Amino acid sequence: MSLLKNLAIQDEFIGFYLLKELEIKQTNATPPKDYMDIVLCDASGQLPAKLWDVSPTDKETFFPMDLVKVQGIVQTYRDKPQVKVIRMRKAAAEDGVSLTDFVRTAPIRPIDLVYTIKQAVESIQDTQIKIIVSFCVNKVEEKLLHYPAAKTHHHAYCAGLAYHMVRMLEIADFICKQRPFLNADLLRAGITLHDIAKPEEMIAQLGIVSDYSVQGKLIGHIAMASNWITEAALVSGINLQSERVTALQHLVLSHHNLGEWGSPVQPQTAEAVALHHIDALDAKLQMVEDALDALPETESWTPLIRGLENKPIYRAKW
Amino acid sequence: MSLLKNLAIQDEFIGFYLLKELEIKQTNATPPKDYMDIVLCDASGQLPAKLWDVSPTDKETFFPMDLVKVQGIVQTYRDKPQVKVIRMRKAAAEDGVSLTDFVRTAPIRPIDLVYTIKQAVESIQDTQIKIIVSFCVNKVEEKLLHYPAAKTHHHAYCAGLAYHMVRMLEIADFICKQRPFLNADLLRAGITLHDIAKPEEMIAQLGIVSDYSVQGKLIGHIAMASNWITEAALVSGINLQSERVTALQHLVLSHHNLGEWGSPVQPQTAEAVALHHIDALDAKLQMVEDALDALPETESWTPLIRGLENKPIYRAKW
Amino acid sequence: MSLLKNLAIQDEFIGFYLLKELEIKQTNATPPKDYMDIVLCDASGQLPAKLWDVSPTDKETFFPMDLVKVQGIVQTYRDKPQVKVIRMRKAAAEDGVSLTDFVRTAPIRPIDLVYTIKQAVESIQDTQIKIIVSFCVNKVEEKLLHYPAAKTHHHAYCAGLAYHMVRMLEIADFICKQRPFLNADLLRAGITLHDIAKPEEMIAQLGIVSDYSVQGKLIGHIAMASNWITEAALVSGINLQSERVTALQHLVLSHHNLGEWGSPVQPQTAEAVALHHIDALDAKLQMVEDALDALPETESWTPLIRGLENKPIYRAKW
Amino acid sequence: MSLLKNLAIQDEFIGFYLLKELEIKQTNATPPKDYMDIVLCDASGQLPAKLWDVSPTDKETFFPMDLVKVQGIVQTYRDKPQVKVIRMRKAAAEDGVSLTDFVRTAPIRPIDLVYTIKQAVESIQDTQIKIIVSFCVNKVEEKLLHYPAAKTHHHAYCAGLAYHMVRMLEIADFICKQRPFLNADLLRAGITLHDIAKPEEMIAQLGIVSDYSVQGKLIGHIAMASNWITEAALVSGINLQSERVTALQHLVLSHHNLGEWGSPVQPQTAEAVALHHIDALDAKLQMVEDALDALPETESWTPLIRGLENKPIYRAKW
Amino acid sequence: MSLLKNLAIQDEFIGFYLLKELEIKQTNATPPKDYMDIVLCDASGQLPAKLWDVSPTDKETFFPMDLVKVQGIVQTYRDKPQVKVIRMRKAAAEDGVSLTDFVRTAPIRPIDLVYTIKQAVESIQDTQIKIIVSFCVNKVEEKLLHYPAAKTHHHAYCAGLAYHMVRMLEIADFICKQRPFLNADLLRAGITLHDIAKPEEMIAQLGIVSDYSVQGKLIGHIAMASNWITEAALVSGINLQSERVTALQHLVLSHHNLGEWGSPVQPQTAEAVALHHIDALDAKLQMVEDALDALPETESWTPLIRGLENKPIYRAKW
Amino acid sequence: MSLLKNLAIQDEFIGFYLLKELEIKQTNATPPKDYMDIVLCDASGQLPAKLWDVSPTDKETFFPMDLVKVQGIVQTYRDKPQVKVIRMRKAAAEDGVSLTDFVRTAPIRPIDLVYTIKQAVESIQDTQIKIIVSFCVNKVEEKLLHYPAAKTHHHAYCAGLAYHMVRMLEIADFICKQRPFLNADLLRAGITLHDIAKPEEMIAQLGIVSDYSVQGKLIGHIAMASNWITEAALVSGINLQSERVTALQHLVLSHHNLGEWGSPVQPQTAEAVALHHIDALDAKLQMVEDALDALPETESWTPLIRGLENKPIYRAKW
């Protein structure tokens, strides 16, 4: 079975794929004819596709997020590859394929990622901080098993958010050893909370974001997380004037560093400075790693990456 | 008694003033001598002053925020006027002067301003919105009687914040009549809440801000007000997922319009757009009015005003 | 008859519409065939359309700005709705339809808007100011009956400019009552003059802008209006050094507030500050109102609006 | 006689200088004593100075723009040199010194500069353009003999504006030969007109700008020159709709290139592009030349120059 | 034979052209059919073209950079003209056409341009500077005969880089006469070196850039030229600490003036300031001249030009 | 002996300090009197100081960078503490104090830092990379023992540069283990080389930068390091076209990430992205740590820190 990432122009292929997007449209013919405008995906990547000559049965058979078996050929459409679907049928039980095999997922099992995060929360020594962080993690624990960290920007795949948190926790452990003046409790809490409201900011399935929620657009995950901390403190009987509450809200509110990047205040504690830069280091390196993973082996330059000053990344041959 | 605003270089004068700031410093002489570095103020403005040859008694007599009777002369120091204090004594009961006469205050009585604000809250028809707004106003009702709207930017005087709110409510009433598609409940609520956390963001006395609070610096009044709305809803049994809660938090969070001006989200409801522009209109015109009020009658140009693109305002002679 | 705004994908319809744009193009077939690339519009909005299989007669029959009766079907083309025209004929006298019914127009009759503007000019007390403002209004009085305030940005419809001026005059009346230190003559004059050269900057018909004039591109409406004030003064025997002339030119030149928004000087009089913020308040709220008007009732979010930080507006359901 | 530029810390000197600025201030002593805060200048540069122990006679003797004979010593005040005046008297007729010897002046005689400018105007072939340019030059001909091109930015000395115009005309002649598609009439006109309103924008004496005029602040020299072109056309019976009038106003309005640099429109004719870049080339090189001229021979780096990205210029030793 | 620049919609034509780009693509038909997506060019400009119904022989016959004889018709595709190729054959020896006639070339013979550059290098008096400049010119002498100065920005044609250098040298000669304080050796060297690494930064043939080199992307022509100067000095035994080496590297490194335009340091010598502004003047005027040359005679406005603030240029009719 | 950091206003003290800066100036008295304007420093910080009534002997005794014994008192001058020196003598051999005890130094011995750096270079596996890195390190090995990483920005103390390199190497080791796709050779080389030219860009003694060198200002450490790599390759017989040379120069040139921060190219390899973010993480956290170290124990807020968005850092009390 051919990985989408490796298909080249003119290749003919047969394989199982996920119908990541599917919309029925009409041609310009008289009378207009229906066709399906499709995005196929597997764990290696995705390709746009067209199914021409759609029958009424087809329209009742195929829906977004279905697994299908496809025979197709890769053509060029406006300088980009596009699959012309020759034959397509729904995957059946006996095909032995499973949805989760066809979406990109973090390289560590989601359940292990969430376990690690909960261990990190457990390791927080300060009781008030631990209570607040636990409260917030509990709100989204289920969603951490599959939510991405962003729609397309970085860690945009199944359990990408949890993976990002775990990697940042590892870096933070190292940095706290290197610089003992940092408060490890606060830094762990900050890492756990900084993007904790993202699962409520975005609407996603299998790591694929279809939209932002109304709350997500009108409030944003940064202020949402701050509100959750208020809620956690109030529900748990922790004084809202406590410096711990302020410190946690400051970590969340300042982690994008600049106003134009969405932070209403700038980092003004040691841990807030550390949080922002550990976040940047991990997110940027993951963008690089993901882009290089998706790069066909014969090529040297990735596409432009918006989060990296809109530059491509070069892979040396030596 | 001479208003500070009208004193010119070389003028000698006697009058009562407030010691807005007072610090004891030392001259370069050997041995160094104490002197007092002072800011005098009255309702018309303020002037720096020096009291040379400070006695030990003086140091135990005069403190910041005291009312004093001063005999002085206006000199030039680095191109700016500065008072040399010749004699000074504390004001006594029999002088019949009162602190509040010596600070700038909004042109409407603070108690009337707060009454008007509470009437506006009462006029909100939607019960949930009214409850949340009331909760937040109650938190700072006492402080609304004297807090300014900002340290120096605009409405920087006693009850300036309440005055700003009342003026905005008037404009909003007019605009809602002109454009009935606007939700008057939301717009009134937005105006009442947008700066409601400022009295906790700043530390002020008699309308004079001495500093920002730790919460003010680390969280900022915008996110603080959002947190208060969460608290109000939780305490009052209003569902945190309610669209009304989201709408109110959106109004508060977006009212500075741009990320670089401190808003983590941009206005995305009709009322949020209205709120931002009514706020701008009132604040900017007040900056102009205050600058022209403080301008000696013989002059045509105010000093540069930071909030007005750092430009001065010209007063025509005709 | 179906309003274009309410047509959904797959709808078939018959109705009268305006050919807002019409161009003859060729298909890729061998030999290439002519087709018409059309924009249909009515008072509710507009849709792109295609007429395939164009006959030589068609080419001599249909021209831009014609009223036509169309039978069509709504299809999807690149994720956007597009009409496939099935039949089309020119509207005839007996159809009883009139051009002006098919373009969007201000909600107040143009003739009443212009009357109101002229009343406002009459109410100016200062003779010199009134003469100059009258001169400039007379230059474009005819065009005020139908010119929009901008090509697409705001008030982009028939008599949109006059409507914008009238609404601003209303706000100004309110603000002048609230803040009597403002010179009402100057503010009325500023509102009347600030966009007065737009009808010469743009080339429009029925509120639809087809292009900018050469003068519009090389000089711009801001400097054009300043030049008109010079012309008005000179023709009327008013001294060019008069502070009134300077004040009026300053109002016009500074009303975009910042250099990057097109103003060569920044507001430096009280009325100039007021003018800019009243202009912003009215223009932004009109963008919101127009976008919500055009929003199908089943939807909650408008398209992105360039003038509102490129954000969409949300319409709550409650 | 010592040139101010060459005086070093600790130097004692006697010479004639101009009192470029003079203000009477008071010391902190009790009673306060008068002293004079002075700026001395000659053709080589300027230095701040103090005259302590001012007598009543002194106050009636010395005024700004007087020529005086000074005995002084150079001291350090806040890391900068400052003259302590030991003795000072007014220059008398028999001293044989003349005001114009003590201000910096363009290296070509002002009368010759103005003659060259008028010759350039004469050489314009198009009658309408020549009439308009002549009209504007006549308005300020007298002032061209001494006005600088800017307060401090560049060509900030006597006849600096005329010198800037003449140099630009020379470059334009060369460029028009190199690129014959350029319209030499328009380019000469643009150079002559681009800063023609500066003498009315600023208030200056002997090339020293004391302030900006009210018109200068509220309208600015760019829009003022555009207005003058309107006036010139109207007075001379030239049609205001003439493309020549538009072209000349475009040259003036666009010559700062960007909105944030004060131009309401950007260059959109060949000559407007040429004008901006010839202006930049000449102004920047003059800043360099003036800064190097003022640099003591023993030093390698000039002070920071605001117009050159706030960088200093290095003078190599070889 | 028809120049591409002069072809209008609907024109049928026969002529020789260069296949500047050629790619084989597939239609959506079942089975998909091959077609050629082509860019035709001649010395006057270029047009996109399509050859439908491609035979296997065609695929082995036509390749990019071939000269061909084409019969075609100009159609409209997405509002832009596109050629439909009716017949096409390869140019043969007997056709008497030559590749270089079909690409845009500088108006002076490349060999003469390079000769002029080498004369300028010869005229440098300082031996060290001359050696370093010669070394760098020798590296790319061959490529100077045909390399453009940029991919599309300016001087984007055969020998465009050498033409840009020669024109700048002419301006520099004039400016050095006007301002003798400039070091003519350094200015000539700076002009010769400032873009000298461009032929290694870009991959071009006949003045047409197909891509940037890996070195070009990772290092950029500015730092590359600095490195070449180091190499030149080392190879020629010139001390790397020599002020001449520093001065030359400074000229190259600073010539884009600002960090955001690619210069790691800003101009800090007189010659560096001159270099930047002469470069800007020549490049911008060439953009104007090239855009006007390419403008059909019936039109007044060029397309938007990215390097000119993204504005179009207007050509007056008089 | 009192640490300068712990001295409060009004404290009298005796101790040994370094004369970090010393300049002789004159008072305004008649005749003017000499005084010494001094900056005292020790390992904990620094304070401005004045010695009034300077004798001729004093002027021949005290020079910058001398160690002295001082009796003084802390006064307030313009809201900042300033020492009035009562008595001062030079430190003598028998005092047993050493210069290096009075300057701030990295918390690890310089010799150990340099040893660690050289070990890291040794561990590079690729021979060409190792040779080039060694060559550059050797150029400045001596200076690495005491040079700071910047004048004031971060690591501004003795051996600060080497300390910064060592810490970054530690982080890089951790990150390379976490993300094995990174090339550890390149990352180590990039860290070692990125600031390697700083000791030639700045002029420093004991970690105290007095100025930038001419090369430093005209070329900058980024391009200098790129030139050194060219030199290293040439001297060592490594092909200048080698991808390794390009990769190393890319790391150095791109490490400031953006043009406005001084990088002529943006990071386009995985290691370049990693280098920039590890550099930022270490530099920013060191700024925080240094500011908190210098903060008196009784205070909660550091001064504003330019490199941290010009914000102060808050130290919680719990």
Description:
6 copies of one chain form a homohexamer. With 318 residues, chain A is α+β, with helices and mostly antiparallel strands. The first copy, chain A, folds into 2 domains: 4-99, Beta Barrel (OB fold (Dihydrolipoamide Acetyltransferase, E2P)), CATH 2.40.50; 110-290, Hypothetical protein af1432, CATH 1.10.3210. Chain A is built from 10 helices and 7 strands. Chain A has helices at 56-61, 110-122, 127-144, 160-178, 184-194, 198-201, 214-218, 220-235, 243-254, 270-293; strands at 12-26, 34-42, 45-51, 67-77, 80-90, 202-205, 208-212. In chain A, the strands form 2 sheets. The first copy, chain A, has a 5-stranded mixed β-barrel. A two-stranded antiparallel sheet of chain A has the order 6-7. The longest helix of chain A is centred in the C-terminal third of the chain and has 24 residues, at 270-293. The radius of gyration of chain A is 23 Å and the shape is elongated. Chain A starts with 11 loop residues before the first strand and ends in a 25-residue tail after the last helix. The mean pLDDT of chain A is 93. Chains in contact: A-B, A-C, A-E, A-F, B-C, B-D, B-F, C-D, C-E, D-E, D-F, E-F.
